[in-house]
Amino acid sequence: MTDTAPSLTVVLREWGRIGCLGFGGPPAHIALLRKLCVRDRRWLDAQEFEDAIAACNLLPGPASTQLAIFCAWRVRGRAGALVGGAAFIVPGLIVILALAALFLEGDPPVWVRAAGAGAGAAVAAVAVQAGAGLMPAGWKRAPEHSNRARWAGYLLLGAVAAAVAGPWLVLLLVGCGFAEMIAQRVPAGPHPRRPAAVLAAAGFGAGVLGSIAWTALKVGALSYGGGFVIIPLMQADAVDHHHWMTAPQFLNAVALGQITPGPVVQTVAVVGYAAAGLGGGVLASAVAFSPSFAFILFGAHRFDRLRADRRVRAFLDGAAPAAIGAILGSAVPLAAALDRPWQYAVLAGAAALTLGLRRGPVLTLLIAAGAGVVIVLAGGPLPQ
């Protein structure tokens, strides 16, 4: 490992490059960060990088974003964390806000609406693929501290809650974590600093901007297990409660979060844009990523203790399978938002691509978008 710290200009350039090229979600981000920090520049050794991945997976929020911020903190301190984290996030934010303006304007072109309807139809299949991809490792680890019967029970509870509970899903995830602490007979004591219990009892006022900030804070602080786990929560707030978006528009937002570079949590920027224009989109993104910066800036030096804490491990043994179940269950409201028969055909094709042929989400969504354009231009009806 090299002892030479890079300049902030180098951090800005290298992390910005990853932010521009990071299509494909966390696996792509981790591979690019490993190549940069371990293989090419040797700023971190392989063991430290793997430990950082594990520690970031113990935190709520987008794990690959937190890993990017951590790596920048490790090589250039707090200033590096701020610069590197922003460079990683901003390119995707610019792209997704530009696409949000195109898809959410008053009367977008027919082909744009058709592409959105096609990509949106495939989102439920991508959610199932994301959840299914997390199951084998979790199932394999289950006997280490918990047991597989409880693990399966938490998975099932998470799936059901995501399908029917909407914004109350968060309480179920936290409840599973505490239930596993009790099952493992781990004394609760001062529970690890997870904001969920506080957030569940708090809220923001101040009209639309306060509501955007509250939704974004829940997204950024409570997304255990990946971006899809907070889809039901966002859908309940944006579509059902505040009526900032229609169900088809929300599907477009999720699809845009998948096909743009950077973290999937950027979906919340589209929700903010729908609620209050460009300022709402920027506000939503800033609030959603603020917990990730806070965790690294004020807690990265304690990551070793975090991984060794029995309470954290026990909590995650319950919350993690529930989060995987929630990702799988999110496919139910996403599929229920479809309102044209041809969209179900596209969904079936997307399921074949993702689950049968194991194609990635970006390719699947682009193919689905193209199918939507072809079908609508051939006379198929657009969603209402």
Automatic annotation (TrEMBL):
InterPro entries given in the database record: Chr_Tranpt_l_chain, CHR_Transporter, Chromate_transpt
Record's keyword annotation contains Transmembrane helix: yes
Keyword Lipid metabolism (UniProt): no
Regions that span the bilayer: 82-104, 116-139, 151-175, 196-217, 270-300, 312-335, 362-382
Membrane topology per record: Multi-pass membrane protein
A molecular function GO annotation: chromate transmembrane transporter activity
Compartment(s): Cell membrane
Gene Ontology CC: plasma membrane
Primary localization class, coarse: membrane
Keywords, in A-Z order: Cell membrane, Membrane, Transmembrane, Transmembrane helix
Family: Belongs to the chromate ion transporter (CHR) (TC 2.A.51) family.
Protein name: Chromate transporter
